[in-house]
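Priority: medium. Attachment 1 of 2:
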């Protein structure tokens, strides 16, 4: 009676008021329906689609501007050391400020407010950089289309820029009155600071070529990215030397008028005033923009983890690479098609800032509809500390951390000064954009090869191959000879970036405990992208200032190659400490438990059948 009523109660055919012992069954049904309603509210596909769209648009917006930022600093007249300090400060601000704002936004449950404020503020602060005048006002004219731009009836744009710096007592190069100036008349790319100084003072190219290591200060004044960047970088060292010798205060009230609100900067010369203004704006820009990625990543991951679908969140990273490739390639193509001047006294490189602000406006509706979740039970600060302890306790994890740090140092030099090297070899925005797009697409294609690579090489060897590939890239960059020369080396990003981060991911899975893989990957990313990027930017700027761009890439290549020689030996000597992956262990225990339960069920069924058969035979024998 009790068993039959129980079976009927599960099917919902019996009223439970007639059985007092079964009052717990309606509670079970209510909890089941509540769970079903809760699962219906979480749409995993919709959340993954929004996460992929946000990553695509966000990376596309960053790629429109950030790769070209150092070129803009060069156009304004900053030296390599100043550029390195600015970019290094940008990386260090992101290293400290991103996790801090992420923890505060979680503690006060203000994640969506932080995301929207970060988007609006980053677009506004980035446009402030366009308000800063270059050190050389005459260098704002661009020569990207010499045949299409005419200053006068018998003078081209290049002629005006060149003759504006010629002293009254000297004569400039003569050209045909009807034909534009040939690029061969302008300073060749191998001239040094002394040669360019003679060009500025006399208007004639120096007949001598000095093989001096200061090759970074010479810029091609031909159909390259911008003539204003080359002329400003040429005349900046001359101004610095004059200011050091004469110690004269900055001249011109018009130049000082833009810096009246910074009284402490009035005693400096124009390049240092501009440097400190850019440093303040870039630091503010990084403070308002860097919490965006961290906050969105936490909110989306906790939302999917609440629905037990956090494993699918890693697939959204591919959309970020595709968006970055589209952003840098499309922006380079569009900007290369623009006229030399967008408006009066506005160089076309300013279009990168406008594209960035426009894409940020497109991200706002997606950011407002992101499904975010707040899980107060998980303390991210303690989990990060536990991840650091796991890395410290494993020798292989420490070797992986040091390798990612070196890769970050080398990668920052490529990000900051590769475009300078390409510009010196005559590359335009089109060459730069397509080269960087090819690198990102090759990096995104590595997951298709990960299965075959894992069968051939261990994760430790893949880590070595990734670092060695980056060293080969840097060595190749030091010998660029034409505008398209950097394109073949960009294909190695499939190994230098894609394979390296795949090896880091496998290393995290081997060492980390349950739930700590993501925090360990964050630590590796912070070591490489922010700490290594900051140190590499500081050091790279001073190396370029002293020795030149080619020697910077050669030094980075030699350092990476030496580390790749010692890394396999250290990995072989290090003891292997493989930690238990509790998630896999629980899954294995569950499968074993289900197998044992099924075996017990079969044993019970077999015994019952044997007993039933024995009873029937005994009854037959008794009847006979």
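Attachment 2 of 2:
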């Amino acid at each position: 009676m009790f068993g039959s009523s129980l079976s009927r109660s599960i099917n919902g055919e019996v009223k439970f008021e007639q059985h007092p012992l079964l009052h717990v069954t309606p509670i079970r049904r209510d909890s089941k329906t509540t769970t079903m309603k809760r699962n219906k509210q979480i749409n995993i596909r919709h959340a993954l689609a929004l996460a992929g769209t946000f990553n695509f648009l966000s990376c596309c917006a960053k790629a429109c501007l950030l790769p070209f930022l150092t070129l803009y600093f060069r156009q304004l007249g900053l030296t390599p050391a100043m550029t390195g300090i600015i970019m290094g400060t940008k990386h260090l601000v992101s290293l400290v400020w991103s996790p801090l704002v992420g923890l505060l936004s979680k503690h006060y449950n203000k994640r969506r407010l932080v995301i929207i404020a970060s988007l609006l503020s980053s677009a506004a602060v980035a446009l402030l950089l366009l308000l800063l005048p270059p050190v050389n006002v005459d260098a704002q004219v661009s020569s990207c289309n010499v045949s299409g731009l005419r200053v006068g009836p018998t003078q081209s744009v290049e002629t005006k820029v060149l003759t504006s710096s010629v002293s009254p007592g000297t004569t400039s190069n003569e050209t045909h009155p009807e034909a534009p100036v040939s690029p061969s008349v302008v300073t060749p790319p191998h001239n040094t600071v002394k040669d360019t100084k003679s060009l500025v003072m006399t208007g004639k190219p120096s007949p001598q070529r000095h093989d001096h290591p200061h090759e970074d200060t010479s810029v091609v004044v031909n159909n390259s990215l911008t003539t204003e960047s080359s002329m400003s970088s040429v005349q900046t060292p001359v101004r610095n030397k004059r200011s050091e010798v004469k110690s004269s205060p900055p001249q011109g009230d018009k130049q000082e008028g833009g810096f009246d609100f910074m009284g402490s900067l009035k005693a400096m010369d124009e390049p240092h005033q501009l440097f400190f203004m850019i440093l303040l704006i870039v630091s503010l820009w990084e403070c308002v923009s860097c919490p965006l990625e961290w906050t969105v990543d936490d909110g989306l991951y906790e939302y999917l983890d609440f629905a037990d679908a956090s494993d699918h969140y890693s697939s959204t990273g591919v959309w970020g690479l595709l968006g970055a490739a589209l952003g840098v390639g499309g922006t380079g193509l569009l900007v290369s098609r623009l006229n030399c001047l967008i408006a009066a006294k506005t160089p076309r490189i300013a279009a990168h800032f406008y594209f960035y602000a426009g894409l940020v406006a497109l991200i706002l509706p997606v950011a407002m509809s992101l499904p975010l979740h707040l899980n107060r039970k998980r303390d991210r600060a303690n989990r990060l500390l536990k991840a650091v302890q796991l890395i410290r306790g494993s020798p292989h994890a420490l070797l992986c951390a040091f390798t990612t740090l070196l890769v970050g140092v080398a990668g920052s030099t490529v990000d900051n000064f590769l475009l300078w090297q390409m510009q010196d070899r005559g590359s335009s925005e089109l060459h730069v954009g397509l080269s960087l797009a090819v690198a990102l697409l090759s990096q995104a294609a590595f997951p298709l090869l990960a299965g075959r690579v894992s069968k051939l090489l261990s994760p430790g060897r893949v880590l070595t191959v990734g670092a060695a590939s980056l060293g080969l890239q840097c060595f190749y960059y030091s010998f660029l000879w034409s505008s398209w020369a950097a394109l073949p080396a960009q294909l190695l990003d499939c190994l230098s970036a894609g394979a390296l981060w795949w090896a880091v991911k496998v290393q995290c899975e081997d060492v980390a405990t349950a739930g700590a893989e993501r925090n360990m990957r964050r630590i590796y990313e912070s070591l490489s992208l922010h700490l290594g990027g900051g140190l590499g930017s500081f050091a790279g700027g001073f190396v370029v200032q002293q020795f030149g761009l080619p020697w910077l890439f050669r030094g980075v290549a030699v350092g990476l190659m030496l580390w790749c020689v010692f890394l396999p030996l250290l990995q072989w000597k290090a003891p292997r400490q493989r930690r238990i992956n509790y998630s896999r262990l629980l899954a294995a225990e569950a499968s074993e438990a289900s197998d044992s339960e099924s075996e017990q069920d079969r044993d019970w069924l077999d015994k019952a059948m044997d007993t039933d058969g024995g009873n029937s035979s005994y009854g037959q024998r008794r009847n006979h």
